[in-house]
Specification:
By secondary structure, the chain is mainly α. It contains 44 helices and nine strands. It is flat and about 120 Å long.
Length: about 900
């Protein structure tokens, strides 16, 4: 009996079962509001505590200890006695996740890190100069503590590189966690040091001018996306939570998939926080609610739990707590040089409280004055009015801290928004409100700040994508050249409208004309350089802002100018090249930059990236009736490829017109759809062109089995080219998952002659694993699988035995009838024990035929002898068959005047 059961037994009245104790505890008035699990979860936790498991949970919660003692009617020391063994425990070896309060602690020395932390970080022996792009919430602190607890590396945490340098050990693997995005000063001047991993929210310093990016001394790694880790992480979380708790893994995954795909929960910490919320609430209560709605409810509950007095200030905060956080995020975007995720001092947070919240009425003084004057009716009216009065900057920040919505981070007492999912929800809402309701001065100021610009630009594009162009009207009514914030706002709207036009969205012509003319007034054009905006360009530096890339600004200019009629908008010799020669060097230079930008992983997933190819195709190649040019820009290749297919003999020329990058292939498919050319027709023609050109190795990046474009072409591989494909890629694993009935039919037809030539190819085993059973029977029947090298054929037959044992038994019988001793031996040698009974029954009759040759009997005898020696389940049946064969062989030898060897 455990210590808790002992206390339950002697309680007055006795408490029967952990469930009863859980209900009594939760119903007690002293139970802390901030710790309120479901009764079943608490009962399961009590069961573990009684067995000495997860005592850390109880040790960290004095209020729970007191309430448990009251519920049991025992001294507090009786509850605390089992916790004494924990006092000498080493704190660095275990961690309880604040955002998963009911999960068992994480043991740094015994457990692997959770999904989401790159594998390279966990292998310090392989570090040279490793740079982990790790925004706040990526698990960098967790990884550092894990490495330190295991003695694999020294952990150094600092706001900047300058702060970290004095803490660096003289040698050995060192993990450095940097908090600030601008904290890299002095890093370039530091002496080279191996065995170093830096985890920072920004990329490493760029190489010097003229130095290729590949020459960077840092190996850059990034955390896997939320979509990649969601399933494994939920399994990891589920294993840490009580089995009978409210967490439902499948339901949680279904709820989380959308916000994860939308980028609203982009980090490991954000996902863990949401798992904690779903565990506390239950997924069913979260159905139909957005992330912002859940965050608002969470803030309300936290503030309610932290409030011990029903004051007007507390009532106001409970109603408006999430809105206050959103307003704080807006102030960070507009006014702060540091991003939202950075921890700040209390004074810094107070300074960020918006002006409308800073001035507060002294509510206590008002009440005291009215009470002295005896104005009871007036006091009631004032109390009602005070409910709508904000409590003032200091009280707001203190209330958020008391509710653990601002939580201490680091050793200097700075406060950061917590949990992680709340920080992301408030920031996303702040961006949306800025561009949706605020003045262009406000979101323009945010665009001037590198840390704020990427998210605000994305929010601006999403807002305009919904068809609400009122902010453009408001912007064009202002004196745009007078303020930097308005200049950058104009440039941002110019980019967004241009990309929307590129995507096929409908934008009023007067807005396009107005923003085009306004932007042309604010160009920077230097001799020998391409035109660029004045302010919207943050791509050169540690902070990446894809939509603020000057090359994308030029793409937007081409799209926007192409949407204007000849009578609309001012001319420009380069940014409005429609109807002019497409082969000018400066235009080629401009298109080269756009092409390079679109291939960047940050941009190529955007919907408008594919449309850029079609636009440049129209710009470069003119009307459909014009002669095909001999040289086109890579951006125009999809248009050229379709024209070649439709207008000329594609046997040789088509392959040269098809780009090898996945984005180019996606653009080619889009162009085929636009021109009403079926993709199977195009893919088939590309294969034929490859064959006509002699199957060149230069096309491996496009058509090879390991190509990133294989999913587009291998489903349409012509069957009559399989021999050429064998000759080119026999030694590689093929993407057989893309084969259809036509490909499989041709594949199986060629098996008999291809297998002996390429028996060591990895293709065979993969094919047998994927073949439909009907195809597999055909392989066994026609392809002579048992020919070729012994090792390869035995491995393939083992797969056949596992997938279609009845078909292999039929194959074995056919080999007996054909007196094919070699094939019979191979088939029998890899027969699994589970089919022995069926095989022995099947062999008895055909082996009795007089036409069976001696070599077939000898191979069968050899196999039977092995079965008997192994003493398996059916060894007696094997012995009976072996005895019959032995007698038959003996009779045959006696008839010939011979005898069996002694």
């Amino acid at each position: 009996m455990g210590w808790l059961k002992d206390l339950m037994r002697v309680a007055e009245p006795p408490i029967h079962g952990y469930g009863a104790l859980a209900r009594r505890s939760l119903e007690h008035s002293e139970w802390p509001e901030e710790t309120r699990p479901q009764p079943r979860s608490l009962a399961a936790l009590y069961s573990k505590l009684d067995r000495g498991i997860e005592l850390e949970w109880l040790a960290e919660r004095e209020a729970v200890q007191r309430t448990l003692a009251l519920a049991l009617g025992c001294p507090l020391d009786s509850v605390r006695r089992p916790l004494e063994a924990l006092r000498d425990a080493d704190d660095i070896t275990r961690l309880r996740f604040d955002d998963l309060p009911f999960a068992r602690p994480f043991d740094f020395r015994e457990e692997a890190l959770p999904p989401g932390i790159p594998d390279q970080v966990t292998r310090p022996a392989a570090w040279r100069r490793l740079w982990w792009l790790a925004p706040s919430g990526s698990g960098r602190s967790l990884a550092g503590r894990w490495l330190g607890a295991r003695g694999l590396a020294v952990q150094v945490s600092a706001r900047s590189w300058a702060e970290a340098v004095p803490q660096l050990p003289p040698s050995g693997p060192t993990f450095v966690e940097l908090e600030r995005s601008d904290g890299l000063e002095g890093l370039d001047d530091a002496p080279p040091r191996l065995g170093l991993c830096i985890a920072a929210p920004v990329r490493p310093p760029s190489p010097g001018p003229g130095t290729p990016v590949a020459a960077s001394p840092w190996e850059l790694i990034e955390s896997p996306s939320g979509s990649e880790i969601l399933g494994p992480l939920l399994a990891w979380v589920e294993a840490r939570l009580p089995e009978d708790g409210a967490f439902q893994r499948a339901a949680a995954q279904a709820w989380l998939e959308r916000p994860v795909a939308e980028g609203r929960l982009p980090t490991l910490g954000a996902l863990l926080g949401m798992c904690g919320l779903l565990d506390a609430r239950g997924v069913q209560q979260s159905q139909g609610k957005s992330l912002a709605e859940l965050a608002a409810g969470f803030v309300h509950e936290r503030l309610e739990q932290a409030t011990t007095k029903g004051s007007a200030e507390a009532q106001w905060l409970k109603r408006h707590g999430f809105d206050v956080l959103v307003k704080l995020a807006e102030e960070v975007l507009i006014r702060s040089s540091q991003p939202w995720e950075v921890a700040r001092s209390q004074d810094e947070w107070i300074d960020l409280v918006p002006a409308e919240f800073k001035d507060s009425v002294d509510a206590e003084w008002v009440r005291w004055s009215l009470a002295r004057s005896g104005g009871e009716s007036a006091l009631v009216d004032v109390e009602r009015a005070l409910r709508g009065v904000p409590p003032g900057a200091y009280r707001i920040v203190r209330a958020l801290a008391d509710a653990r919505l601002l939580r201490s981070r680091g050793t200097q007492g700075r406060l950061g928004v917590s949990p992680e999912f709340l920080r992301h929800a408030a920031l996303q809402r702040a961006r949306e409100q800025l561009v949706g309701a605020a003045s262009p001065f406000s979101w323009g100021e945010a665009l001037l700040r590198p840390h704020a610009a990427p998210g605000v630009l994305d929010a601006l594009y999403a807002h305009l994508e919904q068809g609400d162009f009122s902010l453009v009207d408001n912007l064009l009514e202002l004196d745009l050249a007078s303020q930097p914030a308005l200049v950058v706002a104009t440039e941002a709207v110019f980019v967004c409208l241009g990309l929307l036009v590129l995507s096929g969205a409908s934008v009023p012509n007067e807005l396009l004309t107005g923003i085009w003319n306004q932007q042309l007034r604010g160009l920077v054009e230097l001799p020998g350089e391409l035109p660029c905006p004045r302010l919207l360009n943050f791509s050169s530096g540690a902070v990446l802002c894809p939509l603020a890339d000057v090359r994308i600004w030029r793409l937007a200019a081409l799209a926007l100018s192409g949407a204007l009629s000849s009578r609309e908008g001012a001319p420009h010799p380069l940014l409005r090249p429609w109807g002019q020669s497409g082969s000018r060097p400066e235009l080629t230079h401009l298109l080269d930059g756009i092409y390079a930008a679109l291939l960047d992983p940050e941009l190529r997933a955007r919907a408008w990236a594919v449309e850029a190819f079609a636009m440049v195709g129209r710009l470069s190649m003119g009307d459909a009736g014009a002669a095909l040019p001999t040289i086109v820009h890579p951006l125009a290749r999809p248009t050229l490829a379709v024209r070649v297919l439709l207008e000329e003999d594609a046997a040789g020329a088509l392959l040269d017109a098809v780009g090898h990058h996945p984005l180019e292939v996606a653009a080619l498919r889009a162009e085929c759809e636009l021109r009403r050319v079926s993709w199977p027709r195009m893919a088939h023609a590309v294969w034929k062109s490859w064959y006509a050109r002699g199957c060149p190795s230069s096309a491996d990046a496009l058509l090879g089995p390991e190509s990133s474009c294989r999913e587009h072409f291998w489903p349409h591989l012509p069957g009559d080219l399989l021999d050429a494909v064998w000759a080119r890629w026999a030694g590689q694993a093929w993407p057989l998952e893309y084969f259809g009935p036509n490909q499989w039919s041709s594949f199986v037809e060629r098996w008999a002659r291809a297998f002996p030539k390429h028996a060591a190819s990895p293709v065979w085993a993969a094919a047998l694993e994927r073949l439909d059973v009907s195809w597999l029977e055909r392989v066994l029947g026609e392809a002579r699988l048992a020919s070729g090298p012994v090792g390869e054929s035995a491995a393939l037959l083992s797969i056949c035995w596992r997938r279609a044992p009845a078909a292999v038994v039929g194959h074995i019988l056919a080999r007996v009838a054909a007196n094919d001793a070699d094939a019979l031996a191979r088939g029998l040698s890899c027969a699994p024990a589970r089919v022995e009974h069926e095989l022995l029954l099947a062999l008895a009759k055909p082996l009795a035929e007089r036409t069976v040759r001696r070599e077939v009997l000898d191979e069968t005898r050899r196999w039977l002898r092995g079965r008997v020696a192994a003493r398996g389940e059916h060894w007696r049946q094997a012995y009976d068959l072996l005895t019959g064969l032995e007698e038959r062989v003996a009779r045959s030898l006696r008839a010939r005047g011979q005898s069996l060897p002694p």
